[in-house]
Amino acid sequence: MQPRDLSDHSPYVPGRGVEEVARDRGIDPDDLIKLSSNENPHGPSPAAVEAIRERADRIHQYPKSSHTDLTAKLAEKWDVTPEQVWVSPGADGSIDYLSRAALDPGDEVLVPSPGFAYYAMSARYHHGAVSEYELDPGDDFAQDAEAVLTAYAGERIVYVTSPHNPTGSTMPLAEVEAIADATAEETLVVVDEAYGEFAEIDSAIPLVDERDDVAVLRTFSKAYGLAGLRIGYGVVPEAWGEAYARVNTPFAASELACRAAIAALDDEDHVSQSVETARWAREYIADEIDAPTVESAGNFVLAEVGDATGVTDAAQDRGVIVRDCTSFGLPNHVRISTGTREETREAVETLNETLADLGLGVRA
């Protein structure tokens, strides 16, 4: 007995963790700076931590009321109905829910290349097929409707990432509307705003109330610092609201995750500090790294270093973990997450020394 043919499925490749690098390199974990997973260097909201402590003795209960409370709070925040909010285990959970709700076997999705691997993975899990639209590195991976529509061939779902991972480029709302206007009535345009808090652009969520062919993904993993709890959500057209109960995994968002997210939504100071640090750090990286970079609206910067694997390996030996973007199809690029001011300065100095020693970078 064997599983079905999974040869078309590629595993997701995460950024390397502190513990595994420390073990492999024989380095004290406290001496490592991890800037590989776009995590919040300030940690979680203190209010979220307190909410977890207060609710820890209730984890024997299913998260019915907390899920309802979080849904209502998000609906109020975005001025939509509760039925339009699909709370999920991370934004990738909402991707799965949309795949279940939208895709018949053989239906196609259109995804950016390079881009977040899980769009395609989820489609294939649900017996869908995948097409790609290319973002041009010669144009700093700029995003516009033309790039998407040139590749569009009637796919059921079109994914847009704004800010885009791993490049940091954004898709203006006018371009999102142009895509939705030009695609078929049965095509859903999904705008992934996992890094939306860091960008100085408007969310696409208001479009969801105006039309029935746009949905938006959001997460608590980045600006809110709750990556370890796996909590996110989608905002869908009102006509899609009834589908949630038919496609979501029962009680997938945990009690502690929901309560932490509710508390984090009210901790505006923590979010403001996280966004301010990220914006400072991405400018510092772009200005000081000895390699060409792409302008970013996220909490990371993509740098062209010439040999991603060589640079990431050598940097780890020196105590800095950055993301090798070979798995994104960018073997010459690394993605550097924004850290605290101290971490960012130290990491850039180490990376510049690494580039010079390897004979890479613009000043090598």
TrEMBL record:
Residues 31-351 form the Aminotransferase class I/classII large domain. Its cofactor is pyridoxal 5'-phosphate. Residues 1-46 are annotated as: Disordered. The keyword Transferase applies. GO terms for molecular function: histidinol-phosphate transaminase activity. Residues 17-33 have a biased composition (Basic and acidic residues). Coiled coil: none annotated. PROSITE patterns: AA_TRANSFER_CLASS_2. It is an enzyme of class 2 (transferase). Gene3D superfamilies: Aspartate Aminotransferase, domain 1, Type I PLP-dependent aspartate aminotransferase-like (Major domain). The keyword Amino-acid biosynthesis applies. This is Histidinol-phosphate aminotransferase. The lineage of its organism: Archaea, Methanobacteriati, Methanobacteriota, Stenosarchaea group, Halobacteria.
